[in-house]
Amino acid sequence: MVGRSFxxxxxxxxxxxxxxxxxxxxxxxxxxxIHAGYAEEHASNQGYRLTxxxxxxxxxxxxKSQMAEDLRNRMSREASxxxxxxxxxxxxxxxxxxDKIKCAVEVLDRAGFITENKxxxxxxxxxxxxxxxxxx
Length: 136
Known about the structure:
The protein is mainly alpha-helical. The protein contains 5 helices and no strands. The radius of gyration is 31 Å and the shape is elongated. The model has no long low-confidence stretch (mean pLDDT 84).
């Protein structure tokens, strides 16, 4: 008789999928379990159990990764619009000088021209200078 091998493929249930989506979004296992349709009185235990399920947590990580990528793409588009607003204010003849300066500083900072190295000077310092005579 020829030996047979079987591969066990685990498929997540719709409820587990809903839990993964909500848990990735909120980080709250109990609320995610309730949202996924688990009984409220058992949601805490069920949520804990689901966070220990490798397949569910793999799905949570995939969702989080996709959410982060979507956010990066959105922020990239929004950053371009924000930069355009700063430039528009900077060049607006009716804008206050203080606002123009703030926009200019922000643009330079975002472009990497401003560093965080700042020098604080104590205004209570006293300097003493001695005069030297060249004749000795």
